[in-house]
Q: What sequence folds into this?
């Protein structure tokens, strides 16, 4: 029988929380117990402990022990929905969903990644909460007793391990990387342009080491496909540096010049001043890259949260067409169209041969389908202090 359920508790978090884990809405058993994931056969508490490499709680552990496990390991806990109409504990029956608001707790903490348990929770969050929170939810297999068969497979533990990997700094989210960038620039005092030059130099190293074949007197053609953001600035700098090395380098700019960041505008001027030709929204230039050519994918960086559309989509498809013609693709930080937080393909993504990512590996480069789209991932230190 369906009933209207209004979420009975406040979120569990503090200023030191680093990841947020969400269910859909408390089940009848959880509401009776007075806390999250209260069903005795729900494996949430063992899954989270294993992810954190913490001792599992004893059978019958109380709310205070569960709260301590989360707080000591900097995990925040809540649910996607403030209210909904639902039949028992069946997420599939959810109707009339009203989402919670997440911006406040994210701003009051160090939360840099959001995980959601079960496909319904992920779908609801990514449908209703991305704009308000600024993040996409990462899928975790459900810990419900109804999902026991999945819980016995290695992929279950592998997915849940991502929570601990974020806490331990083995992986970083888009928000975590942006915070590290800001800390490096504003606290450590390393200029953004310096980081951009370092990033471009790292990409050039990978191109030289892995993409040049033989010792032809004519270097391969380099087509840097650049957006207006700082990822595009990296691409402009790659074109300039590769031309200096003797490559036939060019840039295809995708997007609107009015949206250029200050650094990318400066890199455009430097590239053009060094003799690099710049073409605007010219997909034929991209598709004409063929055997021996290298395409540098620098359209979108790690901040993408919505499906790419219109001209951007056409540019990605042009890169795909060039790869089918024999060109190789090197992605700057992440393939354009891949979510750095979830590995989702947001509209389209041109599969890279190599992805040169900076400072630390990203969640989306380790989760499918982003993992496959990234090709071989090379992590390069460019001077960013990961915090």
A:
């Amino acid at each position: 029988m369906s009933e209207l359920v209004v979420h009975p508790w406040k979120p569990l978090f503090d200023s030191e929380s680093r990841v947020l884990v969400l269910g859909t809405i408390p089940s009848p058993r959880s509401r009776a117990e007075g806390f999250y994931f209260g069903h005795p056969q729900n494996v949430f508490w063992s899954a989270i402990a294993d992810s954190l490499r913490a001792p599992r709680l004893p059978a019958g552990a109380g709310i205070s022990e569960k709260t301590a496990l989360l707080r000591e390991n900097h995990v925040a806990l809540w649910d996607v929905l403030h209210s909904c109409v639902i039949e028992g504990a069946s997420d599939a029956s959810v109707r009339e969903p009203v989402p919670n608001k997440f911006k406040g707790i994210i701003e009051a903490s160090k939360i840099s990644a959001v995980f959601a348990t079960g496909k319904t929770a992920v779908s609801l969050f990514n449908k209703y909460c991305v704009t308000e929170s600024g993040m996409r939810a990462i899928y975790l297999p459900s810990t419900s007793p109804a999902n026991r068969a999945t819980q016995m497979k290695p992929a279950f533990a592998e997915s849940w391990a991502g929570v601990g990997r974020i806490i331990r700094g083995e992986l970083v989210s888009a928000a975590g990387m942006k915070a590290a960038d800001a800390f490096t620039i504003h606290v450590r005092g390393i200029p953004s342009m310096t980081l951009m030059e370092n990033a471009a130099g790292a990409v050039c190293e990978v191109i030289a080491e892995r993409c040049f074949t033989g010792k032809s007197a004519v270097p391969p053609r380099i087509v840097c496909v650049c957006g207006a953001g700082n990822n595009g600035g990296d691409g402009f700098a790659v074109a300039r540096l590769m031309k200096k090395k003797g490559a036939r380098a060019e840039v295809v700019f995708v997007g609107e010049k009015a949206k250029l960041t200050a650094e990318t505008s400066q890199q455009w001027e430097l590239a053009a001043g060094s003799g690099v030709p710049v073409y605007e929204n010219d997909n034929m230039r991209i598709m004409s890259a063929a055997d021996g050519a290298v395409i540098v994918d620098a359209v979108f960086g790690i901040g993408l949260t919505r499906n790419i559309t219109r001209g951007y989509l056409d540019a990605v498809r042009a890169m795909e067409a060039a790869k089918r013609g024999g060109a190789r693709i090197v992605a700057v930080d992440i393939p354009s169209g891949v979510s750095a937080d979830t590995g989702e393909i947001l509209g389209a993504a041109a599969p890279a041969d190599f992805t040169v990512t900076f400072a630390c590996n990203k969640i989306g480069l380790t989760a499918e389908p982003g993992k496959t789209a990234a090709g071989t991932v090379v992590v390069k230190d460019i001077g960013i202090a990961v915090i």
The chain has a mean pLDDT of 94. The chain has two domains: 2-170, 178-380.
